Amino acid sequence: MKIWTTIVLAASLVLALSCQPQNTGKEQTPQTGSVEKSADKPADKPADKPADKPADKPADKPADKPADAPADKPADAPADKPADAPVDKPTDKPTEKEPAKTDSPGNPAEPAKDEKPAEPTAGGNVELNLTKTSGPVTMEVIPNFTLLPADQGSDMNLLIKLQGAKTEAQKRPPLDLAIVLDRSGSMRGDKLRFVKQAAMELVDKLERTDRVTLITYSTEVTVEAERLPMDGPGREQLRKIIAGINATDRTALGPALFTALDILEKAQREETDLAHVILLSDGLANVGETRPEILAARTAGGFSHGVSVTTLGVGLDYNEDLMTRVADQGGGRYHFIKNAEAITGVLGDELAGLSSSVARSVFIAFRPASGVRLDKVFGYPVEDNDGMAKIKVGGLYSSQTREILVRLRVSDAKIPASQLGTLFLSFKDVTAEGKDVEEEMPVGLAVSADTEAVKKSEKTEVTIRVTEVQSADEMEQAARAVERGDFAAARGIMSSSVDKVRAQAAATPSPRLEAQVKALEAAGGAAMDAAAESEEAKKDYIKGRKAESYNLMK
């Protein structure tokens, strides 16, 4: 009995001791630091629970916390992997990964600063979806390579394609057109006769709702007609005015252009109406403002007010650099017309394009990501707008494709993916009553350290376009060398260029490259020999090669 009583008393004593609160003295000292850093610790991961109370450790039960687990983390992930590990942390070498330090709960593992967990998908790849359609305009971005090389500086060419939607024949918006004609002394004879004939044919193709401003210039600028309606009486009146134009004196091109822009900018018209200037000249601007940069800046101002400008250079004596610059800043096109009889066809094509417009005031802007620089835009004017490059495209016609090639310099690309920047597209939708449209497209690519994989990701369509555009640029360089009288440099440029295009044509066969080889061979052969022999052939060579280069860039 005494033995039984002793056993019962001992059991009671053990039970009483087990119900006492734990000692909060020496054992709690290491946790003081973790309390001071509680702001850095996720609220759903209490770290001050004793190890002998598993019920208080929800982090050990992934099934109870599905929302905290990364999408690509398997359900049977090892318990020593921190729940907040970045999704782009490589998992193919688990033995190299340092386990979480349970003795320092206030310092959870953090992803490296240069990692971007949200960008890659499972496996570290990026799915390219670089096409966006907005109303009648489709923008497609095609990288030269779909993989970026890792951890080294590299160039990346992007081909930005703008496609105008094919529209059925429909009544176009009214056209507010200013025709600015050169009637200086050099226009006497066949030139003026063909210009007047072309202007009359253009007038005959206009609609009753269109308006025409006719400005002629020599030493003085004359507004022959201002926004005359093209109804029956207006059309007949304008034909009589054109017939009476005579050539005399000098060339006040600048003042005439300014007058046309002033009239169209101040005019009251519907938002859907098209406003356009056609400037024609055969000579050098020598009265009033003549500086190309000032004329181009004024034209750019007109474009910002919805007025575009196309230029026509007739013959061999005008300043093609000025005419090109004015057209580019005015969002229009430049045309080299060697023979005056071709004026009618060019004006007809210009009107046909305007009649099928689906978008106007088209801009592309690009904001580079960190570590990326916009190195060059081929063939289109670009300006810096608070760190964002703004590219002036102009108008877009039905079924027309514009190809804008840009070159980026990427200083550092980290596996598995890298952002290059963001593209912005803006335009006025002609098919929707001039509605303003703005879209943006982030551009990012997968990154690889595998050199062969990078080479195999090449998009040859872009390579062909790069070759074509670079050779066009070299053709213009050769023309400028001829302009300086340095025929040896011009021949060297053309010889090198044709060799490069031939080599690329062999590597990536293309009808476009074959055509370019023939054009380069012609430019570096008999045409250059003729340019060295006569002044007229020299002028023809310079203007012809510059115009060819200009058209290839567009």
Task: Label the structural class.
Answer: alpha/beta
CATH class of the largest domain: Alpha Beta
- Count helical runs: 14
Distance between the termini: 111 Å
Strand content: 25-35%
**How would you name the CATH homologous superfamily of the largest domain?**
von Willebrand factor, type A domain
The main pleated sheet reads as: 6 strands, mixed
Helix percentage = 25-40%
How large is the radius of gyration? 35 Å
Number of domains: 4
For this structure, the CATH topology of the largest domain is Rossmann fold
Low-confidence stretches: 1-127
Strand order, biggest sheet?
3-17-16-11-14-13
Mean pLDDT: 82
